[in-house]
Amino acid sequence: MKATIKWVDGVMFLGESGSGHTVVMDGPPEAGGRNMGIRPMETVLVGLGGCASFDVVSILKKARQDIRDVHTELAAERADVEPKVFTKIHLHFVVTGKNLKEAHVKRAVELSAEKYCSASILMGRAGVEVTHDYEIVEID
Questions:
Q1: Residue 133, beta-bridge partner list
Q2: How do strand 22-25 and strand 3-9 relate by DSSP bridges?
Q3: What backbone torsions phi and psi does residue 56 show, to the nearest 5 degrees?
Q4: Superfamily (CATH) of domain 40-138
Q5: Range 39-49 average pLDDT
Q6: What is the mean pLDDT of residues 41-64?
Q7: Any bridge partners for residue 136, and if so which?
Q8: What is the tally of helices (H) and strands (E) in the chain?
Q9: InterPro entries, alphabetically (predicted)?
Q10: CA-CA distance, 56 to 114, in Å (whole number)?
């Protein structure tokens, strides 16, 4: 896996993934930015959420669960002093579907956290307290 980062100006950068997709990263005005893009650490958090959500959806589809939506909310805390690393991250999965079996949802979240989501596992190994929970929304 590869990526490139190109400085635009101030504290704005363009990050390009090896697959050719680009993300704009910028800082707030007080840091010399223009608030034109996502912050670098927000990018890390979004990546973690995407990784875990991908796993949960894949696992639930394999379990033949009739999922209609998966919405993942992440809340993170960072250290007060430099380097301002993440200290705690909580992922809350809201799984919407028909006739969902709680055991399958619970297992999908556990498998993502413990086996499949490399971003979550990497954070945990780095000393970040990563927690997960879920709720199920049944539709008719």
A1: 92
A2: unpaired
A3: -60, -45
A4: K homology (KH) domain (3.30.300.20)
A5: 97
A6: 98
A7: 95
A8: 3, 6
A9: KH_dom-like_a/b, OsmC/Ohr_fam, OsmC/Ohrsf
A10: 12
The pLDDT of residue 76 is 98
pLDDT (0 to 100) of residue 28? 95
Q: Which residue's entry shows tokens 């490399």? A: 118
- Give residue 90's pLDDT: 98
Query: Distance between CA 8 and CA 29 in Å, rounded?
Result: 15
Q: Which amino acid is at 55?
A: D
Q: What is the pLDDT of residue 81?
A: 97
Alpha carbon distance, N-terminus to C-terminus of the chain:
42
Per-residue pLDDT averaged across 31-38, rounded? 96
Nearest residue to 120 (alpha-carbon basis) of 63, 55, 66, 48: 48
Residue 59 backbone phi and psi in degrees, to 5? -65, -45
Task: Check residue 61 and give its pLDDT.
Answer: 98
H/E element holding 47?
helix 40-62
Residues of the chain with CATH 3.30.300.20: 40-138
Q: Which of 70, 94, 4, 82 is nearest to 41 (CA)?
A: 82
